[in-house]
Automatic annotation (TrEMBL):
<dbReference type="GO" id="GO:0000145">
    <property type="term" value="C:exocyst"/>
</dbReference>
<dbReference type="Pfam" id="PF06046">
    <property type="entry name" value="Sec6"/>
</dbReference>
<keyword id="KW-0268">Exocytosis</keyword>
<protein>
    <submittedName>
        <fullName>Exocyst complex component 3-like 1</fullName>
    </submittedName>
</protein>
<dbReference type="GO" id="GO:0006887">
    <property type="term" value="P:exocytosis"/>
</dbReference>
<dbReference type="GO" id="GO:0051601">
    <property type="term" value="P:exocyst localization"/>
</dbReference>
<comment type="similarity">
    <text>Belongs to the SEC6 family.</text>
</comment>
<dbReference type="InterPro" id="IPR010326">
    <property type="entry name" value="EXOC3/Sec6"/>
</dbReference>
<dbReference type="InterPro" id="IPR042532">
    <property type="entry name" value="EXOC3/Sec6_C"/>
</dbReference>
<dbReference type="GO" id="GO:0000149">
    <property type="term" value="F:SNARE binding"/>
</dbReference>
Length: 721
């Protein structure tokens, strides 16, 4: 163990000794270096005066280099003005390639002189900054060069702008312009690359560089396209002129594109993609132009021309969808010609304009209709013999034509136009119904003078008109797409409901006229004189009125013809029973009850024969049978045993559940043989048995009001009170 420790200590001591020796050697070397640096400082101080002398020599050398550059460039400087003048003549004569060659030579001289004056040309020198005054002097001397650049550019862009015309005549100037553009683009690129990789001794970019004439080439091309649209004004394209203008645009653009594809495209390098660039330029200019056109105050025909051109013609195979153009660019790359917002605004303006026109035409058509009602002749008839006027034809053709035209643009516009037409139809029918009411009032006022002999005929024609309009309305509603309802925030139009209201009003007026004509004959029925005379002429005259009305009803289109026939039967029975309820005739004995029942049954038979014969002629069977009421009432009066009235009333209530105790009381009064007890029993039974009206049952007694009995005059005694 001890020898090992001795060995370790010995190694440590040897290492310390070696380190101390190295430190002594380093100290000696540092002393030697310090002495050498001191000597170098002394020598440097001695040479300071020599460096000042070299500075003066450097200035002399720079001046010498500048003078040498000036002397060597004197021939060029003397010839600058003559070259500028000669280049100006070349530009004016459109010898563009020669002019550009001279211009490049002049620019090269200018750049070389400026660079040499900087001092970079002197061997072994770093160059000095050129004073602003000297640089300004050189640029003023070469000021004609800048003007030449502007003049050449002006001529160059004039050639590019008229490239389409030159291509058809002499494309040489256009080819020269493209070559110059490519030269300039190459110079720009070379100078940028030289400045980017030349280090500290790179030349500065000359003034006006880079010129980017290739980019300017495409700008001029687009400006040339835009020039076709800038001259167009609103006044030049009013009315049919707008459609003609758009057609001229179509042919002009397609002709220009053909020239570009077949001629100009061969005059430029392939990487220009000139046809594609021209397509984009046309599209952008059309976007701007149509945006301007859309802002004009356009009529419906003009808006249709724009929408049809934008949505169909522009993307069709006749324009941008042409197979040769599709090879160059897909229409989706160009984007929409007008924005969706602008498209919706145009469609709304179109619908608004059409609505205004439709409203005016409907107003005029209604005025013509009202004038026709005053004619002293029957209404016109169609090929089936039905009455009609010009109103439904005008309205139907107008709405269908508007829908057809709108569909040429889009389904959406067709739906909007139909919805608008249905709203206007509803408004028209409301005014039509009001006109019918006024027509009826006027007829009643002038009835004494009998001015309008064809009042009923025109009412029937109005009903037929409504049926035609209903068919047209249903046809328009069927054309609406399933998505149209969700696109309209307003309440959906209700022309069918308005039609039904108008038909109901016209039918009511027809029935009012029938009642007016029946009234004189109804007054002669169910009276004591009528019963005593036994004359059936009154009934026959009444049947004559009904027959004439039925004959006129045959001029009405189904189903309203059947409706009028049913209403006619209903009105006849109701008014007949109403006369009975007036108690003009109260039987005194059984013989009078027999005679009254017999006459009522006979009248019922006459009416039944009349109606059945007329309905059979029309080829339809009415579901309503009000005529069955008269024989029932006749049997009620004919009944010999008053004690059986309770049973008879039960049967009457079962058939006609809307009959009231007032009606039954009047019938008992007409019989004239009902005791107080029997009357009380019958009325009590009636009060206890009031069945609900069955489904589909049309009340008849509800239309028959029982006259209020007049109170007998009496003195106000205590008993009466």
């Amino acid at each position: 163990m001890l020898p090992f420790l001795q060995s370790v200590v010995q190694s440590y001591l040897e290492g310390v000794g070696w380190g101390l020796e190295q430190l002594r050697e380093a100290r000696e070397e540092l002393k030697e270096v310090s002495r050498a640096l001191g000597k170098a400082g002394v020598e440097s101080s001695r040479n300071a005066e020599g460096v000042k002398a070299l500075e003066m020599m450097r200035e002399v050398s720079v001046n010498h280099c500048q003078l040498l550059a000036a002397v060597s460039n004197l021939p060029r400087l003397y010839s600058v003005q003559s070259m500028v003048s000669e280049t100006e003549r070349l530009v004016e004569s459109r010898r563009l390639l020669e002019a550009h060659a001279r211009l490049m030579e002049l620019e090269c001289w200018q750049d070389d002189i400026l660079w040499q004056l900087h001092g970079a040309g002197a061997p072994g020198t770093a160059g000095t900054a050129l004073s602003t005054q000297d640089e300004e002097l050189v640029r003023n001397y070469f000021s004609g060069v800048g003007k030449l650049v502007e003049a050449l550019g002006k001529e160059l862009w004039a050639v590019v702008g008229s490239g389409l015309a030159l291509a058809r005549q002499n494309p040489t100037p256009f080819v020269s312009a493209v070559r110059i553009v490519e030269r300039e683009e190459a110079l720009d690129q070379a100078m940028l690359e030289e400045r980017g990789g030349a280090g500290g001794h790179s030349r500065p970019l000359p003034s006006g560089r880079p010129r980017c004439w290739r980019e300017r080439f495409f700008q001029v091309l687009e400006e040339a396209v835009s020039a076709r649209f800038r001259s167009v004004s609103y006044l030049h394209t009013r009315g049919p002129g707008l459609a003609g203008h758009l057609s001229a645009l179509q042919h002009g653009i397609m002709g220009d594109l053909a020239t570009v594809r077949h001629l100009l495209d061969h005059c430029v390098p392939p990487h220009y993609n000139l046809t594609r660039a021209y397509l984009r330029a046309c599209h952008r200019c059309l976007q701007s132009h149509l945006g301007q056109v859309s802002g004009w105050e356009l009529e419906s025909g003009e808006i249709f021309a724009v929408l049809n051109w934008v949505l169909h013609i522009y993307n069709s195979s006749d324009m941008m969808g042409h197979p040769d153009l599709m090879v160059e660019m897909e229409s989706e790359e160009l984007g929409p010609l007008i924005s969706q917002e602008c498209l919706e605004q145009l469609q709304n303006k179109y619908v608004h304009s059409v609505r205004k026109s439709v409203s005016e035409w409907m107003h005029k058509a209604l005025e013509v209709e009202l004038t026709d009602w005053q004619r002293d002749q029957e209404p016109d008839t169609d090929h089936e013999g039905f009455y009609l006027t010009s109103l439904p034809t005008i309205i139907t053709q107008m709405l269908e034509e508007n829908a057809r035209v709108a569909l040429m643009v889009s389904e959406s516009l067709r739906d909007q136009t139909i919805q608008m037409g249905l709203y206007e139809m509803e408004n028209l029918l409301n005014r039509f119904r009001e006109a019918l009411v006024e027509f009826g009032k006027e007829h009643r006022r002038d009835q004494s003078t009998n001015q309008n002999k064809f009042y009923l005929h025109y009412l029937l024609a109005s009903i037929s008109n409504c049926i035609i309009l209903k068919t047209s309305t249903e046809s328009l509603q069927q054309q609406l797409s399933s998505r149209s309802a969700s696109r309209f925030s307003r309440t959906p139009p209700g022309p069918l409901a308005a039609l039904d209201r108008a038909v109901r009003r016209a039918c009511r007026l027809v029935m009012d006229q029938l009642l007016l004509e029946l009234q004189p004959f109804l007054q002669g029925l169910l009276s004591r004189s009528w019963l005593a005379q036994g004359d059936v002429m009154v009934t026959l005259k009444l049947c004559g009125v009904l027959e004439r009305h039925f004959e006129l009803y045959s001029r009405v289109r189904p189903p309203c013809r059947q409706r009028l026939q049913e209403e006619c039967q209903w009105l006849t029975v109701v008014e007949y029973v109403r006369v009975l309820m007036q108690k003009r005739l109260v039987c005194r004995n059984a013989e009078e009850r027999r005679q009254l029942a017999q006459r009522m049954a006979l009248d019922a038979q006459h009416l039944r024969d009349l109606f059945q014969g007329l309905v059979e002629v029309e080829g339809s069977v009415s579901e309503v049978n009000p005529m069955a009421l008269l024989p029932v009432l006749a049997d009620f009066i004919r009944l010999k045993d008053p004690s059986m009235l309770t049973l008879e009333v039960s049967g009457l209530v079962a058939k006609y559940p809307d009959i009231s105790d007032e009606h039954v009381s009047v019938l008992l009064d007409v019989r004239g043989d009902v005791s107080r007890d029997v009357r009380g029993t019958v009325l009590d039974l009636l009060e206890q048995s009031t069945p609900p009206l069955p489904a589909g049952y049309r009340p008849i007694f509800s239309d028959i009001l029982v006259p209020t009995p007049s109170m007998p005059f009496c003195l106000p005694t205590a008993k009466c009170a």
